[in-house]
Each structure stands twice: as structure tokens, then as C-alpha cells.
Amino acid sequence: MAFDLQEQEQIDSLKVFWQQWGKLIGGAVLALSLGYLGYKAYGMYQRGQAEKAAVAYEAVDDAIAAKDIAKLKTAAQQLQGEYAGTVYASRASLVLAKAAFDKNDAALAESQLQWVLKNGNDAELQAIARLRLASLLLDQKKFDGAIGELSQEHPAAFDAQYLELKGDVFVAKGDSAAARDAYKAALAKLVEESPNRQLVQTKLDALGG
User: Is the pLDDT of residue 38 over 90?
Assistant: First the structure.
């Protein structure tokens, strides 16, 4: 009988507990469940978008093969408009920027690079876009703008390239001391077997001092 009494007390305690906290616990469990389902649904949506973007990117490849910049622009704009959150949109923008640069259309090239920087979500593609934008600004003799881009945060894997281009900008600007520092810093980031190491060393040696 003592055991039954103890058991009843435990049941009564549980009832009180659930009366006080049951709704809150139930709501928390429901929120977690809905959150998980939402996460899974978003993941499925992202995969679906990527698959559709991959198909749409075929138009980019076709335009490149045909050397048709008008079709390339149309294909890139479709990806930007419908699949902006995918890497395919950023890749298409970079390809269009390169084609525009080759056609001496600096304005179109810059707009595409800026699109990647503002809308892309791949750090490496954004680093490439920023590097190309800085190079474009260097060609336009917008030295301060180029240095500003090259001073932005970027993945460490791009350090040497950013520093080398920064050195090139300083050379064009006539600041040999800053150029030497940049080239030296670039060399420090390059491994001995890097194919670009000799070129950077040659640029540094050309400055003397």
C-alpha cells in the first residue's frame, strides 16, 4: 500500500507539472519540428534551384561557343534574375564581364563584377570578381579605387594575387616604396614552387633598392 501511495504521489506531481509546463514544452517541440521541416524544405528548394540553374547555364556555354555576346548577356541576365542565389549566376556574370572587357565595354564589365560582389554568396567567386574589378580600375587609372578593392577582406588563398596586383597599382601610381612592400609581401605568401613566384621577383628586382 505504501508503494501505491508513493506511485500516486508521483502521478499527481506529473499532472501538476504538465498543467504548468505542458503547453510551453509542447509549443517548443512543435517549433523545433517546424524549424526542422522548414530547414529540410529550404534545402530541397536550394537543390532544385541549383539544378534548374545548371540547365540554364547551358545557354552561357552555347553563347561562348558562338562568340555571341548578345546571347551571353541574355543568358547571364536570366540567371541573375531567376537563380541569383546560385553559383551559376555569379559564374555567368564573370564570363560576361570578361567578354565585355575583351570588347572594350568597361561599363558592362564593371557592372557584372559589381553584381557578383553585391549578390553572390560564394567567397571565392567574389574574390575573383574583386580582383578583376581592381584590374579594371587600374586600366582606367583609378588607382585609389583599385587599392580600395584590393584592401577588402578576401579568402587567404588569394593573398598573393591581391598583393601582387596592389604592387602593380603602386608602380602605376609612382609609389615605388609601397610597390616594393607589396611585392615582398606577395613573395612571402607564395610557396617556392609557385609558377608565379619568378614573375613577382622580376617585378621586385625591376624596382631596384
Answer: no
CA distance to 28, 159, 197, 200, per residue, from 194 (Å): 55, 13, 5, 10
Helix (H) or strand (E) holding 3: helix 2-66
C-beta of residue 58 within 8 angstroms of C-beta of residue 93: no
Cβ pair 187, 197 in contact under 8 A: yes
Please answer whether residues 169 and 186 qualify as being in contact, where contact means their C-beta atoms are separated by less than 8 angstroms. no
pTM: 0.76
Is residue 139's pLDDT more than 80?
yes
With a CB cutoff of 8 Å and minimum separation 6, the contacts of 57 are: 75, 79, 88, 91, 92
**27 CB burial (10 A radius; 0-12, 13-18, 19+):** exposed
pLDDT band for 1, please (50, 70, 90 cuts).
very low
**CA of residue 82 relative to chain centroid, distance:** 18
> How far apart, in whole angstroms, are the C-alpha atoms of residue 43 and residue 57?
21
74 pLDDT above the threshold of 50: yes
Report how far residue 62's alpha carbon sits from residue 78's, in angstroms, rounded to the nearest whole number: 14
Q: Is 98 exposed, middle or buried (0-12, 13-18, 19+ CB in 10 A)?
A: middle
CA–CA separation, 60 vs 97, rounded Å?
A: 13
